[in-house]
Amino acid sequence: MSLENEDIRFMLVVGIAAMLLLFISLLLIFIFTQRKRLQYQQSLRDLQDRQQRQLIEAAVRSEETERHRIAEELHDEVGALLSSTKLYIYSIKNKHTEDDDKGLYRKCTSLLDEAIIKVRGISHNLHSSILQEFGLNEAIKHFALKISNGTHLELSTNLDYSYVTQESTNDINIYRIIQELVNNTLKHAQANKICIRSKYENNLLIFSILHNGKGITQHDFESLRYNKEGLGLKNIQNRIILLKGELNYSQDSAGFKIDLTVPRN
Amino acid sequence: MPKIIQLLLDWSEVWAVCIPAAILLTKKQPAVLKPVVFYVWTALAINILIDLTWKLRNVIPAEYNSNNYLYNLHSVIRFFLFSVFFIGLKQPFLVRFKKLLPFLYLVFLVVNFAFSEDFFNYWAFSSRLLSVEAICLLFYVLQYYLYKITESVETYSFKADFWIVTGLGIYVTINFFIFLLYNDLEVRMQNFAVTLWNVHNITYIVFNIFLAKGFYESRK
């Protein structure tokens, strides 16, 4: 009888152990295959991200090259042509002294001067020479000055000079984003007061654009960035992906605010 | 101290079910988990009755103070509700057999209790019933994992159903042999049988923790 009891006890222990072994083995196989699958998915996602980044990088680089080419052609070709035209017109001055033509002459030279300034402005805008020579802060300050010069727009800057440009390629992207955001604010929000602020701490460069116009919220931005016609926002989005940054739109009693956060190492 | 632990284990069939029930009170569960939700509430009611019957056995009239039929009832309800749950997962694997299994179990129930055993046996619950239930549920659990292992769809699998199935798997794996030999053990080694029931209670706590985890995960 006692032996039988021992047999039952033994059978029970062996039975439970065998069942547990079977179950645990299957569970481990399951967990192992799931992990493998997740790793595979992750590597696939990484590959897709890398490819996307490479594509965006190529697109941004070609856009930048094209900007430089147009800027140089405007400056060297069109600018030179306008300057020589101006010289010729000045030489005409001595030959035409009649009063009727004086007005036309003055109008012509003033328009020509304006054209030369505009071409220079566009050329500098497209070219990132200031950024490459003097850094991001100077480039933004110069851009702000140029935009507000001769207009009713009040564009102020309050930049953190503890940030020093180390690699201009990434800073060009930040500069272009700021440019596009300010241009958008002027074009769509009709703001007359804009302030560009920056803060650099914990390897994070944060730009804030505050304005008093009719801005957009984060929700509006999320829907607009997938709009096929919104090329500017798409460019911003691409550059943000490259910079691994974040863009946040918000609103408070003081007005609208756009925060651009970029990690800088 | 051992008395407190024993008291906790004695009442574990009630308080353990309260863990997933508490999660259920805070959030509605998706339709696919409804059979499990229903199981939790039913199990809570049956287990309260089981423990009260046992604790008040000296007060209740003799013909009603056995709780063994409630264990049988719990087993039948658990099997059918989890069958519905597994079929409801709509895994395209052994579909016909999964749908057929509840009917086979029903045939077994009728045949077993019509010709062999008494559902309302005063002295013992049906070892055969509970072990057949455990092996059938184990089949469902194993086919779930086998399907998931061979599944070609690239999805994250550690969802609510995974936790519920794993909890059930642990419970039925350990308890299959306990259920199978329990009637014999009660006759031959009563003290050992009582101690062994603590193992059942511990696995039941684990099962309920996994159910709670499953209900919690379904919110994500």
Summarize the helices and strands and which ones pair or pack.
The complex is a heterodimer of chains A (265) and B (220).
Chain A: H1 2-93, H2 99-126, H3 129-134, H4 136-148, E1 154-158, H5 168-189, E2 193-201, E3 204-211, H6 218-224, H7 231-243, E4 246-252, E5 255-263
Parallel strand pairs in A: 1-2
Antiparallel strand pairs in A: 2-3, 3-5, 4-5
Helix pairs in contact in A: 1-2, 1-7, 4-5, 5-7
Chain B: H1 2-10, H2 12-26, H3 34-55, H4 68-88, H5 95-116, H6 127-150, H7 160-188, H8 190-217
Can you give a write-up of this model?
The complex is a heterodimer of chains A (265) and B (220). Chain A has a domain at 135-265: Heat Shock Protein 90. In chain A, 68% of the residues lie in helices and 14% in strands. Chain A has seven helices and five strands. A five-stranded mixed sheet of chain A has the order 1-2-3-5-4. In chain A, strand 2 (193-201) and strand 3 form a beta hairpin. The longest helix of chain A has 92 residues, at 2-93. Chain B is mainly alpha-helical and 220 residues long. Chain B has one domain. Helices cover 77% and strands 0% of the residues of chain B. The radius of gyration of chain B is 18 Å and the shape is globular. The A-B interface holds A 1, 4-5, 8-9, 11-12, 15-16, 19-20, 22-23, 26-27, 29-30, 33-34, 37-38, 40-41 and B 138, 141-142, 145-146, 148-149, 154, 156-158, 166, 169-170, 173-174, 176-178, 180-181, 184-185, 188-189, 192, 196.
Question: Radius of gyration of chain A from the CA trace?
Answer: 32 Å
Query: Helical residue percent of chain A?
Result: 55-70%
SSE ordering of chain A: HHHHEHEEHHEE
**Strand arrangement, major sheet of chain A:** 1-2-3-5-4
* End-to-end gap of chain B: 39 Å
Specify the CATH class of the domain at 135-265 in chain A.
Answer: Alpha Beta
The helix/strand class of chain B is mainly alpha
Beta-strand content of chain A: 5-15%
What is the assigned CATH homologous superfamily of the domain at 135-265 in chain A? Histidine kinase-like ATPase, C-terminal domain
Uncertain runs of chain A are none
The overall pLDDT average of chain B reads 90
- The radius of gyration over CA of chain B amounts to 18 Å
Number of strands of chain B: 0
Oligomer: heterodimer
- N-to-C terminal Cα separation of chain A, in Å? 78 Å
